[in-house]
Design goal:
Layout (H helix, E strand, L loop, with lengths): L1 E6 L3 H16 L3 E2 L8 E6 L4 H17 L4 E6 H5 L1 H7 L5 E2 L8 H8 L25 E5 L1 E2 L10 H5 L3 E2 L2 H13 L4 E5 L23 H9 L6 E4 L10 H8 L3 E6 L7 H6 L6 H14 L4 E8 L6 H14 L3 E6 L17 H24 L5 E9 L17 E6 L11 E5 L1 H6 L10 E10 L2 E9 L2
Bound molecules: iron/sulfur cluster.
């Protein structure tokens, strides 16, 4: 039997999708390249905010319209959060999986396709052996599930439950296995990796525990070889400064910091149940940049939170100027039942929230542009992802004659799927010299950054394949 998985949502949900694929593969299913070839279509949904929920439901409706006869299974966060409601209201999906344990997918798939064989749970096997949906050479390593922070706007604790950190030994085995498979970049993820180990797993008692993220990085540092470790989603309230020591000592731990600040107004931050204030966040950035001059900052702002006034917004604009984040993601508040903010007074209209988001995003383009200019002239390593078919038709990639090949890749300052990219130009001499033959997706290369093109950086190849 063949399945096709349509992934939605965040990197954490992607790892679940990869684990579900591993379970199905181990139970004798085969992954189909597209839905046409598949017996079963699995929509791995997101249930975080309204727009994401709608996107996942639309996917089920679309697949049903396109393939009336095929079996469709809804998995992922939406199916956890609304299993009962959806069972009655989404007949287009034959089965609502609703199970948080990826191994349960085999039984659900069998039920969906009326199979009697292959029932029961089939394990994913070694985490490092799972299919990877990330760009070539990169893999997400999910170190914990759930969250204890209870930000008042966030439904994730309702969906994914309390924080559960994985044992450091398991994570280390996964990293070792992924590196042996040729993975070059390990993206460490969780809902809030700064809280890793504070649930007491693999260390002192729950709650009182300090973050064990530095201890985890120390363990990963014991692995041999050349690789990148990128840290994503560190809640500012739990920033473990011990990671800076490791980054100063070991360049494989990228000075890339994804710290969602969400807002700057003391009134709004307190209503969001977030403790670290704007001044303290700015001091944190100063410490980071003071200790790691190559530091790159990504953050997230939430606009339109209940009670947000023009004055609160003005504080956020001022904070945006002062943080000078390299990358910034903006979201508008989504009123989610079951969250503390749902019942709050002063709900802000979507129109105002979207307008504030537009203003922030517009201002961020020049901030990011200025920040990326600092890389022009530098020679940096790049992780190759794909070759462009026809460079001449590649938008925003400057002028090219027929004698060049063009690749897409990422530098340490560019996280997968959310930041700008590196556009790598291989001129004729390199083509003739055979250098290009060493170029392949997931391989290292290095090049001199010659220009910024919008939010992307253009490189001229210097070295490859090491
Ligand atoms: S840190 Fe806050 S926003 Fe992030 S998952 Fe936890 S509760 Fe949600």
């Amino acid at each position: 039997m063949r399945y096709f998985l349509d992934p939605f949502g965040c990197a954490k949900n992607q790892v679940d999708a990869e684990n579900m694929m591993a379970c199905l593969d181990n139970a004798g299913w085969t992954a189909a390249a597209d839905a046409e070839e598949a017996d079963l279509i699995i929509v791995n949904s997101c249930g975080f905010i309204e727009s994401a929920k709608q996107e996942s439901i639309n996917a089920v409706l679309l697949w049903r319209r396109r393939w009336p006869g095929k079996k469709i299974l809804l998995a992922g966060c939406l199916s956890y959060r609304y299993a009962d409601e959806l069972a009655g209201s989404l007949p287009e999906a034959d089965v609502i999986f609703g199970g948080a344990d990826p191994a349960g997918i085999v039984d659900a798939a069998a039920r969906c396709c009326g199979l009697t064989a292959a029932r029961g749970k089939t394990a994913a096997g070694a985490a490092s052996a799972r299919p990877l949906l990330s760009p070539p050479g990169s893999a997400y390593v999910k170190i914990s599930e759930g969250c204890d922070n209870r930000c008042s706007f966030c439904a994730i604790p309702l969906i994914r439950g309390r924080l559960r950190s994985r044992p450091i030994g398991d994570i280390l085995e996964e990293c070792r296995g992924l590196l042996l498979r040729g993975v070059k970049e390990l993206c460490v993820i969780g809902q809030d990796i700064g809280s890793f180990g504070t649930d007491g797993s693999g260390g002192p008692a729950a709650g009182a525990a300090a973050s064990r993220l530095p201890a985890l990085l120390e363990a990963i540092a014991s692995l041999e070889g050349r690789f990148w470790v990128r840290l994503l989603y560190i809640h500012p309230d739990h920033f473990p400064s011990g990671i800076l020591d490791i980054m100063e000592r070991d360049g494989r731990f990228l000075p890339y910091f994804d710290i969602p600040f969400q807002h700057a107004s003391p009134k709004i931050l307190s209503a969001m149940n977030r403790r670290r204030g704007a001044e303290s966040c700015l001091a944190l950035l100063e410490t980071i940049r003071g200790r790691l001059s190559a530091a790159v900052i990504r953050s997230t702002f939430l606009l339109g939170f209940p009670g947000e006034t023009d004055e609160d917004f003005a504080l956020l604009l001022d904070f945006q100027e002062k943080t000078r984040a390299d990358w910034l993601g903006c979201f508008t508040y989504s009123r989610e039942e079951g969250t503390a903010a749902y019942a709050m007074k002063g709900q802000v209209s979507k129109k105002i929230a979207l307008e504030r988001k537009r203003i922030i995003e517009e201002r961020q383009v020049s901030i990011t542009g200025r920040n990326m200019d600092r890389f022009v002239g530098k020679t940096l390593d790049v992780l190759l992802e794909e070759q462009f078919e026809n460079p001449a038709e590649t938008e925003g990639a400057g002028t090219f004659d027929g004698g060049e090949s063009l690749w897409l890749g990422r530098l340490y300052c560019q996280a997968p799927e959310v930041d700008g990219a590196a556009v790598i130009v291989c001129a004729e001499p390199e083509l003739r010299g055979g250098t290009v033959s060493k170029l392949r997706p997931g391989a290292w290369a290095s090049g001199k950054i010659t220009a910024r093109r919008g939010l992307d950086l253009e490189l001229r190849l210097a070295e490859t394949g090491y």
